[in-house]
Design brief:
two-stranded antiparallel ribbon, alpha+beta, seven-stranded antiparallel sheet
């Protein structure tokens, strides 16, 4: 039996927990930025996806904190107009998860979790060396959905450089999921591997 969820009467935190346990699995954007003063920041966002191929555009959605303050990643993107989206695989899952802790803005998450910053080719924020693929982005626009606690915003970036580990590529030039080993975010602190896969034939008109 289905129930009708009156989401307008739910507390924001309760609704958030319900949504992230329902819209699953979600890909993870491991976003690296630098502040206006040059401090490095690294944080994961599972409200993320590719939104256009021509032009190549990526988006991620940071929500405001419980006190309605902007997250450090958003502050940095607003200040510099640049960010890098690094893809998360099983190998760096634990270290990615640790960066979601509420570190103060002057703390370098690269150093805290032991990931290697690599100079990007077109933007100032570094890439994550351990990531199997990275997208260097310049800010296209930010769409705000409010200034209250929990309100999200959509950060849209134009990809100006794209890096992928050649060991993950197939002879056809696509990424082999068995080698890429990406993970997805579920609800709470649960994640999913992408090792259980199945194929379907191309859809045809019946």
């Amino acid at each position: 039996m289905y129930i009708d969820v009156d989401h307008n009467r739910m507390r924001p935190r309760e609704l958030y927990q319900l949504i992230i346990s329902t819209v699953t699995p979600r890909p993870i954007a491991f976003v690296s930025t630098v502040s206006a003063e040059g401090a490095r920041n690294l944080a994961p966002f599972s409200f993320f996806n590719c939104v256009s191929v021509n032009p190549l555009m990526m988006m991620f959605c940071p929500a405001r904190k419980r006190d309605a303050a902007r997250k450090d990643t958003l502050v940095n993107v607003e200040a510099t107009g640049e960010f890098v989206i690094n893809i998360v695989n099983k190998e760096i899952a634990v270290r990615m998860h640790q960066t979601s802790a509420p570190y103060p803005p002057e703390i370098d998450e690269f150093e805290i979790v032991g990931l290697t910053p690599v100079a990007s080719s077109k933007v100032k924020p570094p890439r994550v060396a351990e990531s199997p693929a990275s997208f260097e982005c310049v800010l296209d626009r930010i769409i705000e959905f409010g200034d209250h606690p929990g309100a999200g915003c959509m950060v849209l970036g134009r990809v100006v450089a794209f890096h992928v580990d050649d060991e993950c590529l197939t002879p056809e030039g696509t990424c082999d999921p068995a080698k890429l080993q990406t993970i997805g975010r579920m609800g709470g602190t649960t994640y999913a591997r992408t090792t259980d896969r199945f194929d379907l034939p191309p859809a045809v008109l019946e």
